Amino acid sequence: MPDILVAGGGPAGAVAALILARRGYPVRLADPLTPPAPRIESLAASALPLAADLGILPVLEAACLGRAAAMELDWRDRPERRTFETDAPWLLSRAALHRGLRDAAAAAGARIVAQRVARPAPGALR
């Protein structure tokens, strides 16, 4: 069976590669291996059961910087403030999340290919 190529090793690509590798598919994860810009991602508390089912909760816990007590959003051109008494979103280091999910995919058997995905030359793909 030919390898499945997952283009992009960010959170979505790394989780896709992780799931495929766990199911026994040969998978390559193409990632430039350059750290993402310093950012904080928020993750809704309602996503935690899915993260536990996927077995990535330890990665999220390691990337967690804390929980949001409140957030100010520019939502549809009008500012909005949300406060959280329960089920506060997790604030995650994007770099730690990216690295942790990519490492989890590799541990599950995905081959990490250090390259940037670019457009193929016309006619290069069949």
From TrEMBL:
All residue ranges annotated as the FAD-binding domain in the record: 3-111
Gene Ontology molecular function terms on file: FAD binding
Protein name: FAD-binding domain-containing protein
Any Pfam family: FAD_binding_3
Source species: Mangrovicoccus algicola
